[in-house]
Amino acid sequence: MKAHQIFQHSTPAFTRGIFHYLRTEQKEVYRTALATLAQGRKLRPIFVQKKSPEQQYEWLQKTVAMKGADGVCEHLLQLWLLKAQRDLLVNFLDGVGIAHDGDGAADDLPDEIDPAKLKSTVEKLLAENDPELVRAYLHTFQLQKAGGWDEIRDLIESEPRLQFAAASAPAAAAE
């Protein structure tokens, strides 16, 4: 799954929370992303910047669900996870035995992940967090390695809480 597809399948409240965090806590990143996405849609950034925050979130929701926004989407997801969801990242990396800097950034990603450690770690994360957050994290983590990890793919395929429901997807035209 690509980054823009994560946004396509996430609930509006979830994506609004991401945008709100970025607008209030990572202002420069938010402004840059808004400008980049506006230019990608052949709009002047000021057109979007003059909208109210709620209107900006609605515009962003539609824009990040488009295939052409994939690079920006991946960057936004990574930054939001690293800054706003640090505990989740640290708990995941510790649980599966991946060395990191203490703030959730992995030092070196392994070629394989122990399936038993992965399953128990994800079960714990699902018990402690919103399943939508865990789902978005695992799908974003899969983007960190070309082709992702077979172990994570297999777990996602076997665990409905980690799957994006096709019914929550917007019209295929957004792809």
Structural class: mainly alpha
Number of strands: 0
**Domains counted in the coordinates: how many?**
2
SSE order in H/E notation? Answer: HHHHHHHHHH
- The proportion of residues forming helix, as a percent range, comes to 55-70%
Shape: elongated
End-to-end separation = 12 Å
In this structure, how is the largest beta sheet organized?
none
What number is the mean pLDDT? 91
Quaternary structure of the protein: single chain
As residue ranges, the low-confidence spans are: 166-175
Strand content: under 5%
Task: Describe the secondary structure blueprint for this structure.
Blueprint: H1 3-9, H2 12-25, H3 27-40, H4 45-49, H5 53-64, H6 70-84, H7 86-96, H8 115-128, H9 131-142, H10 150-158
Which tags fit this structure?
single chain, 175 residues, 10 helices
Model description:
With 175 residues, the protein is an all-alpha fold. It folds into two domains: 81 residues; 81 residues, no CATH class. It contains ten helices and no strands. Helix 1 packs across helix 6. The longest helix is centred in the middle third of the chain and has 15 residues. The termini are close together.
Write a brief caption for the model.
The protein contains ten helices and no strands.
